[in-house]
Every structure is written in C-alpha cells, then in structure tokens.
Amino acid sequence: MSTPDTRRSSNDVPEPVAPIADLMSSFPAQWALCGGWAVDAWLGRSTREHADVDISVFVQDQQALFDHLTSWQLTAHGLNVEIDTHKLWDGQPLEFPGHIHARPDRGEVLPDGDLMPEQGFILDLQLGDRSGDEWVLNAEPRIAIPMANAVRESPWGLPTVAPEVLLFFKSIELRRRDKLDFARVLPHLTDEQREWLRDAVSRLGHPWQAKLSA
Fold first, then answer.
1. First CA to last CA across the chain, in angstroms?
2. Strands 151-153 and 143-146
3. pLDDT tens sequence for the chain (214 residues)
C-alpha cells in the first residue's frame, strides 16, 4: 500500500472523493480508499448513497496523519478515548482499533451528539494495523495479507483496498449495506481472491463461507 501515482483526470474521480484524494496525495505514509466508495471504484458505477469518505491509514502512522491534517478538526475514537467526549484530538497516541472523524477547520465549535456529514465531517479515517509488509486484519485468529495484495490501484487511479479485503471488513458487522455490497462485489472476484476470502471468513466461522464455497 504505497503512496500512489496520482496522475489522473479530475473527471475520473467523483465528488466528494476527489478533494479527499487530493488531500491524501501528499500524505507521506500509506493510505487507501475504503468503504462504500471503494466498492464503487472497483465496480465502475454508483451503487448507493455514501454519507462520507472512508480512508484506511495505519495506527503506526498516526503522528504523520496528525501533522498532515493541521487545517482539519479531528476527533478520535478508540479504546483509550472516552466514548462521550467531544474534544479535538490533540495527537495523543491512539490504541488500535479506532477511527478519526474529520472536517475542515473553520473555527466552529464541535457539536454535541453524533458527528454527522451534514456538520462537515466528510472524512472518516479508519486505523489499521500492520506488521512488516503485511496488513494484519484480525489478531486472533491471525488473519493477514501482504500489503501488495491488500491495496491496488483502482480504475480511478487511487490506492484502493482490494475487493476481497473490503468484503472481509464488511463481513464483521453484516449490516444491510454490507450484505448488498457482498452480493455486488462477489461475482467480480477472481478465483484467487475468492479463495483467500473463503479461507479468511472460514477461520471466523462466518455464514458467508457457504456462499463462497458455492
């Protein structure tokens, strides 16, 4: 998952992904488009409405992220952050797993309650974990994938989480949209991608195992 070659036409990348891609193009560490927009990138079409833009970064690079987003308001969510605390992230080390909501800093006071895209929080940074040249997707049982396979350049010219890894993450919560994304993406997996995903979810005892074996 290396910093991408961002040579592309601005027409290739839809709004609101384009400004986020431009923002991350100068990030000095590894990143990738993930979530629902990544599904659209691989399928080459719009599949549904998206509340925000999800970007994967690594917990080991959080200081670089904090330094990079100096013109954004950042709120952190993780094991060592109080759930109901609405304070700007001051760069304190975050434990894995976690994520960071972000919006451009216009001097606004943080709202009470959930942070919503309509309040400007258009970016959701998902913290992943890596070990050497592998992305560690699950600690126990250990499920990992080489970084070169985990993230590839999508048709939009952006580093994007690979389809099989997207579906692995979507298998965790099994929300309605996750099930729909599974149905959309599954037919487009190669035999190798399908085999990797089948092995990964089988180690978790997952209901998708039967569909992947069909």
1. 31
2. unpaired
3. 334 333 344 458 999 999 999 999 999 999 999 999 999 999 999 999 999 999 999 999 999 999 999 999 999 987 777 655 578 999 989 988 899 999 999 999 888 777 888 889 999 999 999 999 999 999 989 999 999 999 999 999 999 999 999 999 998 878 899 999 999 999 999 999 999 999 999 888 776 766 777 6
Bond from prior residue into 16 cis (ω within 30 degrees of 0): yes
For residues 37 and 181, give the distance between their C-alpha atoms in angstroms, rounded to a whole number. Answer: 11
Q: Which residue has tokens 């759930």?
A: 83
The DSSP result for 56-72, as a single string, is EEEGGGHHHHHHHTTTE
Rounded Cα distance between 150 and 38, Å, is 13
Give the Å distances, CA to CA, from 96 to 103, 109, 127, 158, 194.
22, 27, 7, 25, 27
- The predicted model scores a pTM of 0.89
Domain locations in the chain? Answer: 1-161, 163-214
Per CATH, domain 1-161 is 3.30.460: yes
Asked if omega into 159 is within 30° of 0 (cis), the reply is no
Question: Rounded to the nearest 5°, which phi and psi values hold at 34?
Answer: -140, -170
Contacts 24+ apart (CB under 8 A), 182-186: 182/208, 182/211, 184/39, 184/43, 184/47, 185/39, 185/42, 185/43, 186/211, 186/212
Q: Quick one: tokens of 83?
A: 């759930």
